[in-house]
Amino acid sequence: MAAGSGSKRSKPAGEVMPAETEFRANGRRPTSYDVALRAGVSQSAVSRCYSPNASIAPATRERIILAANELGYSPNALAQALISRRTNLVAVLISSLTMLYYPEVLAELTERLTVRNIRVLLFSLHAEGEVDDVLDQVWRHSVDGVICAARLSDEQIQMFEDRHVPLVLYNRVSGTASAASVCCDSVAGERDLIGKLLAAGHKKFGIIAGPQDSYVGEERRETASETLRQSGILDVPVVRGDFSYESGSTGLQALMANDASFDAVVCVSDQMAIGAIDAGREVFRLRIPEDLSVVGFDGSGPATWSSYQVTSVRQPVQRMTEAAVTMLVERIEDASLPAERRLFTGQFIIGRSARMA
Amino acid sequence: MAAGSGSKRSKPAGEVMPAETEFRANGRRPTSYDVALRAGVSQSAVSRCYSPNASIAPATRERIILAANELGYSPNALAQALISRRTNLVAVLISSLTMLYYPEVLAELTERLTVRNIRVLLFSLHAEGEVDDVLDQVWRHSVDGVICAARLSDEQIQMFEDRHVPLVLYNRVSGTASAASVCCDSVAGERDLIGKLLAAGHKKFGIIAGPQDSYVGEERRETASETLRQSGILDVPVVRGDFSYESGSTGLQALMANDASFDAVVCVSDQMAIGAIDAGREVFRLRIPEDLSVVGFDGSGPATWSSYQVTSVRQPVQRMTEAAVTMLVERIEDASLPAERRLFTGQFIIGRSARMA
DNA sequence: CTGTTAGCGCTTTCAA
DNA sequence: TTGAAAGCGCTAACAG
């Protein structure tokens, strides 16, 4: 018998196991050695059967596949990864809030990675300090690359370069370090939104911003303020939320507590816009948009529901996730590829939550 | 020098590498050999440093930790897993729809697994046929266990037993095979809901059900029909949706197309209830709940928004996810544990979408 | 086309 | 407490 003799296995060559009639007779999953034994070939022949471009005789392959099926064999991804230095694993880092309020992104990323035969190792970040622990796990698992939709410091981004782990940032860019990223253009989108509100004659604005550590949130808030300032509208009050419905609702109430004469409230996310709309209607008995215009950002599911129909900017999530996955895979394939930043333009959604004339 | 000589490494003992001043001088991540070399100990000493209950002298440990930090070393999870037969990886299987409409579950599961030092390998299923491919990947990656919130056939469940891979089903039970599971009691919840509608004098019902392959959807639909039948209300029309907002909206319209005299519409999910409420208001100009009562199920986020306030049954997601994770971890620790089924009672949410008197 | 061989980086006896 | 040695299951030269 070809296999077994001279192998490193502990059982001597003569002591060949009987045909394994039971599934997993020895209590462990079958290995390529078991398959080789049964098919009467060498272990490496079995390995070749599962290699995309291996040279193996059709007849041999058939015998091996048969034996493998009888045994219920499938290659051990750990061993494959250990030797080939390719895990086919990508870590997706996502802040728990984003995961809750924007699940479409995760669903799309997962699907697109799966299509490329890549598995997703999911990390959900809530607290800030957690990031370092998560990164440690990322290194330990030798993932082929990382897609990050959570806050990373420049030092942390630098670690990816040091370790040659391809990284693509989602809806954020790094300040100093150069990292590949895919974003929806918050500046253009928010400017567009504000411009339309101004054109419709809105004069008294309020802003419901996101947490300070949110990249897109801050970008949208700054753009809103700046655009208004350029039109001579200064000192626009800002309150902060956490992207949640509740914080949109309390945000509006906080704004109104000081001064209830708003024309328009700019929310940096749809979820908060919805909260603001509900608070406007329920708490202040306002008609939206006749008495108060509310705009959001994202174009996420509930924003289109007929009770809200939020005037907003829709992120092209499908194209963005596809771009992120493509960029990452390219960098896994060719580590020398330079950092690239892809900026997608959001689509204005007219909705019914803002007076547009 | 202790390490290096006699090791299996290809570089001869004499050809010792110079002190590695650079991070990852050889272009690869440092291994325990590199650390051993630098700390002047054997590779196994380094390994012990990262073992919870190893016997190692404090002084030695310190030298090793120092060297490890200088090199930026962290253990290779692949190699650890390969030899120790423990990956600290759990696969989470979730249907893409569930992922979209019920992200809280994924977030909670991930968080609770992370706390237990377990990583999540995420698989999102859309089509039915995909399951077998996903399972193949699950086997290949030698996960320690699986939490499944997607449809699995009895044969597929049997594969987990054959391979001794612990499995916990989430919000579903297996028909014949015995698998551990965590569920919210749809029967009790739906019966409660229907009972309250009946008590309030509703007479003419319609049901918006889920897809036929949804376990909870069908359970809720059957319970609703059955409970009504027991009160003498027969032939309740049923239309099917896919749990989405849109299908709730079109579902109501389909029901009304035949007969617009409904008292109450029972939706098997909140998302569809919301769609039905909006369609009732927008399309049919109905007041909810004065003209039409709508009830849902789940108690998911948007259901509590003030525009909807869906009368529903809230699943105790926190307790359910904790139970699922605990059950799985117990079975990873002790494979001989018998299958167990934990049923949680949902909480009735009175809401404002159904007339209750 | 096929088999032999040498490890991937680590844990775990077994001696010392 | 420590080191040497033996693999975990696999890929990838290298010969033949």
How would you characterize this protein structure?
2 copies of one chain form a homodimer. By secondary structure, chain A is α/β, with parallel strands linked by helices. Chain A has 13 helices and 12 strands. The model of chain A is unreliable at 1-22 (pLDDT under 50). In chain A, the strands form 3 sheets. The first copy, chain A, has a 6-stranded parallel beta sheet, sandwiched between helices. In chain A, strands 7-6-8-9 form a 4-stranded parallel beta sheet, with helices on both faces. At the A-B interface, helix 4, helix 5, helix 6, strand 2 and helix 7 of A face helix 4, helix 5, helix 6, strand 2 and helix 7 of B. The structure holds a DNA duplex (16 and 16 nucleotides).
Measured between the Cα atoms of the first and last residue of chain A, the distance is 86 Å
Strand fraction of chain A equals: 5-15%
Helix content of chain A: 40-55%
Number of strands of chain A: 12
Oligomer: homodimer
Cα radius of gyration of chain A in angstroms = 28 Å
Q: Secondary-structure element sequence of chain A?
A: HHHHEHHEHEHEEHEHEHEHEEHEE
Summing up helix and strand content along with how strands pair, one would put the structural category of chain A as: alpha/beta
What are the low-pLDDT stretches of chain A, counting only 5+ consecutive residues below 50? 1-22
| Largest sheet composition of chain A | 6 strands, parallel
Q: How many helices of chain A in DSSP terms?
A: 13
Shape descriptor of chain A: elongated
